[in-house]
UniProtKB/TrEMBL annotation:
Organism of provenance: Marinomonas phaeophyticola
Aminotransferase class V domain ranges (all copies): 25-393
Entry EC number(s): 2.8.1.7
PROSITE patterns the UniProt entry points to: AA_TRANSFER_CLASS_5
Name of protein: Cysteine desulfurase
Domain of life according to the entry: Bacteria
Keyword Transferase: yes
Reactions that this protein is recorded to catalyse: (sulfur carrier)-H + L-cysteine = (sulfur carrier)-SH + L-alanine
Cofactor annotation: pyridoxal 5'-phosphate
Protein family membership: Belongs to the class-V pyridoxal-phosphate-dependent aminotransferase family. Csd subfamily.
Keywords attached to this entry: Pyridoxal phosphate, Transferase
Length: 405
């Protein structure tokens, strides 16, 4: 089945707008993706027809809101093949999901324990573990990357030991686009019974994520990177761990019984969902996943591979451009520097031509230091991008180079 990218583009109203008098070429999808009309409609429809607080209302609107909200959880559970809907926890995004896990672990970590992360972490999956380790006298170990931006699996295997309580790594690097061998990394960690957290912020929109097949303990992601609204995300975790770990926030919904002196906790998923959830965005997230799942995955992945392969080919032909991160298995991200000028100037001058990219350290400062660059210019692709847009991008980049010379 072929992937009809022009039909897909028609579903995204924002893609018809112009920027600085030019048609928008949006290549900042690793930062956030745009939303198809059906997702926008789901949000509007929720607020227009059944806005209510969930679970506790004794009226029709509350019932409808609860049904849609819990239905969205079912869609997401199915999408990642979670063994139970109860282990799918609504959060505000990847960052909060990681913090919930770190909160649980930091109450169990002891002096001498170790946590292993990689050199290619987003700050959300690095600083959080630095803090958790610092509180407990635990050590943070960092897996190096090679010059291509691939994890050094041999070094990883050496760093993982019986002292390792948890390993955390990204499914896909937001700064380089490297796709990590997540099943292999998980298996190595499991040999020493370490917990495994996968930061799926960049992985979720590009692949088939089957948490049971991967074998990890936690897989976390944000809605806004997979065509859903901002402000909503998922923590998936193995049920026994989530059920037994210390609770995160306390308040309404997460309790079972309360007296003036004590409280007992609700069952999953509610024990980790204190307070009124982000109902409308969660419903729209469910709609985004329903929409995304309707594509033939093999055709979609073929399209995405064509985008990154073509962009990489053009980048390699471009004189004065250095790709940062040229791993053999990449998706969605072309990070680069130009001899002609600073990434910030490159981004500014591309924007003048209607092209949106991201420049800077991509919340991965240690990784930028590893590659001895202050930051990069990053073009990142989603399913609605076309090969023509990549041509427009490189034509514009030629002009940028000339302007900076
Ligand atoms: N991890 C990775 C790999 C990311 O790309 C991002 C977002 N840039 C995050 C974590 C944090 O996601 P959020 O800001 O949605 O919580």
């Amino acid at each position: 089945m072929s992937f009809d990218v022009l039909a897909v583009r028609k579903e995204f109203p924002i893609l018809t707008r112009t920027v600085n008098g030019k048609p928008l070429v949006y290549l900042d999808n690793a930062a956030t993706t745009h939303k198809p009309q059906c997702v926008i409609d789901a949000l509007v429809d929720y607020y227009s027809t059944c806005n209510s607080n969930v679970h506790r209302g004794a009226h029709k609107l509350a019932d409808e809101a609860t049904r849609r909200f819990e239905g969205a959880r079912d869609i997401i559970a199915q999408f990642i093949n979670a063994p139970s809907r109860n282990s799918v926890i609504w959060t505000s995004g990847t960052t909060e999901s990681i913090n919930i896990v770190a909160n649980g672990l930091s109450q169990l970590l002891q002096t001498g324990d170790e946590v292993v992360v990689t050199s290619m972490e987003h700050h959300a999956n690095l600083v959080t573990w630095q803090q958790a380790c610092a509180k407990n006298g635990a050590k943070l170990k960092i897996v190096p990357v090679n010059d291509l931006g691939e994890l050094d699996v041999v070094e990883y295997t050496k760093l993982v030991s019986p002292k390792t309580k948890l390993v955390a790594f990204p499914h896909v690097s937001n700064a380089l686009g490297t796709v990590n061998p997540i099943v292999e990394l998980t298996q190595i960690a499991k040999e020493v019974d370490a917990l495994v957290l996968i930061d799926g912020a960049q992985g979720i929109a590009h692949g088939d994520v089957d948490v049971q097949e991967i074998g990890c303990d936690f897989y976390v992601f944000s809605g806004h990177k997979v065509y859903a609204p901002m402000g909503v995300g998922i923590l998936w975790g193995k049920e026994p761990v989530l059920a037994e770990w210390p609770v995160w926030q306390t308040g309404g919904e997460m309790i079972s019984t309360v007296s003036f002196t004590d409280a007992t906790w609700n069952t999953l998923p509610f024990r980790l969902e204190a307070g009124t959830p982000n109902v409308g965005d969660a419903i729209a997230f469910g709609e985004a996943i329903r929409w995304f799942s309707s594509f033939d995955l093999a055709s979609l992945q073929k399209h995405e591979k064509a985008l990154i392969d073509y962009a990489t080919k053009r980048a390699k032909e471009f004189e004065g451009l250095t790709i940062i991160g040229d791993a053999s298995n990449k998706v969605g991200v072309l990070s680069f520097v130009l001899d002609a000028g600073h990434p910030a100037d490159v981004g500014f001058l591309l924007d003048k031509q209607g092209i949106a990219i991201r420049t800077g350290d991509h919340c991965a400062q240690p990784l930028m230091n590893r590659f001895s660059v202050p930051g990069t210019a990053r073009a990142s692709f989603a399913i609605y991008n076309t090969l023509d847009e990549i041509d427009v991008f490189f034509d514009a980049l030629c002009k940028v180079k000339a302007m900076l010379a």
